[in-house]
Specification:
Layout lengths: L1 E10 L2 E11 L4 E5 L6 H8 L7 E6 L2 E2 L6 H8 E4 L11 H8 L8 H7 L15 H13 L5 E5 L7 H16 L3 E5 L11 E6 L2 E2 L1
Helix pairs in contact: 3-5
């Protein structure tokens, strides 16, 4: 499913990832663990195709990511993202924010996902009219709506209380049980209870 081959990354002269090689099998729930500065967010950005590695290659379903001509279509068809910051569009309603990311045949999923996340009553509100935790749940719904083959999440529960965090964990676990590959980078060690595999990073290297 996902293969990292000799991946390194630099920000200017500072090296943050060192020659990483590993594979993530289809349908796995992988927890990227590590302290701040360990490189986990950079690695997640590379795995999710949002960042091109300085060295090495990334393969998804056997395709070399650096050789894909239309990466936007590739992402829309296969990948869901949950960012640490929700990046919702303020002039669109909750429903419209999710619908913007949805393919035509998946818009029927929107109301179901909003109900599962217990925010169905917010569908006609705007992001500046709801709380930070509610906005984060909208971002989760946006990532799930197309039933992607892979979900990448960077601190997906950072602004949520324990009850709402549990809802998100269970949704991600259910997606994984349905065959979706889930990769989460987080400081929240509770995610380890849901993961099938843990990759621990320290100083840009896998322990």
């Amino acid at each position: 499913m996902i293969k990292a081959s000799n991946i390194s990354h630099f920000y200017g002269k500072e090296q943050v990832l060192y020659d990483l090689s590993f594979e993530i099998g289809s349908g796995q729930f992988v927890f990227l663990s590590g302290e701040s500065g360990s490189g986990k967010s950079t690695l997640l950005s590379i795995l999710s195709t949002l960042l091109q590695p300085s060295k090495g290659e990334l393969f998804i379903d056997g395709e070399i990511i650096s050789e894909i001509k239309n990466i936007d279509i590739f992402r829309q068809n296969r990948v869901g993202f949950i960012f640490q910051f929700h990046y919702l569009i303020n002039y669109l309603t909750v429903y419209e924010n999710i619908a913007l990311a949805a393919t035509e045949d998946k818009k029927q999923n929107i109301n179901k996902i909003l109900t599962e996340l217990k925010i169905a009553e917010l569908s006609s509100r705007y992001p500046n009219e709801i709380s930070g935790g509610q906005r984060q749940r909208v971002a989760v719904a946006r990532a799930l709506v197309n039933e992607p083959k892979i979900i990448f999440a960077d601190e997906p529960t950072g602004s949520l209380d324990s009850n709402n965090s549990l809802i998100v964990y269970e949704l991600l676990k259910n997606a994984q049980k349905g065959g979706t590959t889930v990769v989460v980078a987080s400081h929240d060690m509770n995610i380890e209870n849901y993961a099938t595999e843990v990759l621990r990073l320290r100083d840009g290297k896998i322990l």
